Amino acid sequence: MIAESMYQELILEHYKHPQGRGLREPYDAEVHHVNPTCGDEITMRVKLGDGGKVEDVSYDGQGCSISQAAASVLYDLATGSTADETLSVVDEFTRLMQGRGQVEPDEDVLGDAVAFAGVAKFPARVKCALLAWMAYKDAVVRSQA
Amino acid sequence: MSLPSFDVERIRKDFPILSRELPGGRPLIYLDSGNSSQKPTQVIEAMREHLALHYSNVGRALHALGTESTDAYEGARDKVAAFVGAPSRDEIVFTKNASEALNLVAYAFGNPVNTDPRFQMGPGDEIVISEMEHHSNIVPWQLLAQRTGATLRWFGVTDEGRLDLSTLDELVNERTKIVSIAHQSNVLGTVNPVADVLARVRETGALLMLDASQSVPHHPVDVAALGADFVAFTGHKMVGPSGIGGLWGRAELLAAMPPFLGGGEMIEAVWMDRSTYAPIPHKFEAGTPPIVEAVGLGAAVDYLSSIGMDAIEAHERQITAYALEAVREVPGLRLIGPGDLANRGGTLSFTLEGVHPHDVGQILDDVFGIAVRVGHHCARPLHLRFGIPATTRASFYLYTTTDEVDALIKGLHHVQKVFG
Fewer CB within 10 Å, N- or C-terminus of chain B? Predict the structure, then answer.
C-alpha cells in the first residue's frame, strides 16, 4: 500500500486542478521535454523580469498524475520568486527525488513540493516528478543566457 | 463451450511463480502474459536437466555430450516444427526472438548478395505493413525502405480496431514485394483476416509474412493451412524461455535467400576470399545458438500440446468473454479494440477517463498485486491512430482465472475512487 502514500491529497488536488496551466505570452525561452519511456511530455515557457524575478511560468503537456501535478506545484513555487531562489529549490527537489526514499526533505525549502517525497521510493516514477522541474531549469538557464 | 477436462487450478500448480506472494503479503495476479508468459515446472526442469547432465556445444562436437546436446537441440526443432504444422523441420530457423526473425527476412531483400528476383528491391518497389503493428514489424521495414529506396505503405485500422481492408486492392499491387502484418494484434487482440490478404497477395506475386508472436501461444496455428510465406514467433510468450524464437519459411524461399548473420556453423566451406553456405536451416544459425533455451522451447511446446491448443484457446475465449462483459460495467472505461469475441484473442487494452495508465498500473500493482502493462506496448503508431498516448493492457493465458478478472475490475473501481 505504499503507492497510496505516493498519491498524496495535495498531488491529486494539483492533478485535478492544475495551477497556471496553458502557454502564455510574453516569454524569454520555451523548452519541450519528453520522457521517451512513458511518453509524458511538457512544453514550458519562462518570463524573467527585473532582478531575475520570475514573472511567469506557463506550460502545457500530457502525462500521469505525478508529472502533471509536479508542473502545477512548480508554477506555484516559482512565480514571484527570483530565478536563483527557484534554482536552489530545483536542486533540493532533485536531491529528494534521487534519494531513493533515504533523503529527509527540507520542508522550508520545498514547501508543497515535499508532498512528492513518497515518489522517491518508486525509481520508475522519479522521472515523472522531475520532468517539469528539469524543463524549468533548462528554460531558466536559456532565459538568463 | 465448457471443457470439463480443462482444470485451470491444476494448471496453475504447474507454474511455481503463480503461488508466490509479493512484498506486503499481496497475492500475484499476473495479467501480463501478452508481454511475457510465466514458465511451468516442466520447462524449468528440462532446462535445468540439460544444463546439469547433457550440456555441450551442438553440431560441432563429436563426443558423447556433443551428441546428446545436438540431439536435444535438433529434437526441439522437430517439436516446434510439428507444433506449428511446418511441412518440413528444415523450415524452422531458431532465432533470438520474433524481432530477429522479422529482421532476418527484411535483410534478405535488396541484398546485393541476393540473386533471386523476389528479393530484389529498389525505388518503385513497395513494402506493405499495417498501423496496428508492434514496432518489431515496423522498424525493420522502415530500415529496409531506407536502404533500398523502396516505398513503405500500410493498412489503416478501423475505429473498432480491425484491419481496414477497403484499400486492399490498391495497397497490395504489382509493385508490392512483401506484405508483413500481425496475425493477432498485441494491443487490440484483433485476429487479422489472413485469407483475405493472402488472396490479394497471391494475385500480385508478392510475399506474405505474419508476425505470429501473439497467436502461436494462444491458438492452434498451422503454418501450412495459413498459407503465408514466412511466420515469426517467440518462445517467451508461449511458456518457454526468453532468448529463443522461431522463423518458419517455405523451404524453397529460405534456400533462395542470402544468409543473414555470418559465422560458425552457417557455412559449408570457407576460403580466405569467399564461402559457401550450409543448407537451411543452419544457413541462418550463425554461431553457438541458445542451446538450453531451444531445449526449453521444446519442453514448452510439449507442455502446451499435452494440454491441447484447442483447450487453451477455448479457456481463453471463456475468460475473454467474461472480461469483455465485466469491463462494460466500469464507468469511463474505453476499450481500444473489438468489443465482441469474433476474431479476437485475450488481450484487452483500455483507457480510464481522467486517469493516466501509469497511475492505473501503479495502484493495481501496489495495492492489489495485479500486473498489467501500461504505455504504448511497442505500438506507438496505433496509439497515435486512436489519439491517445497510452493504454492499460490486461492479457490472459491458460492459467488466467475469472477470479483474477474480478480482481482487476475491483482494482479499477478503486483506482477511480482514488482519482475521483
Answer: N
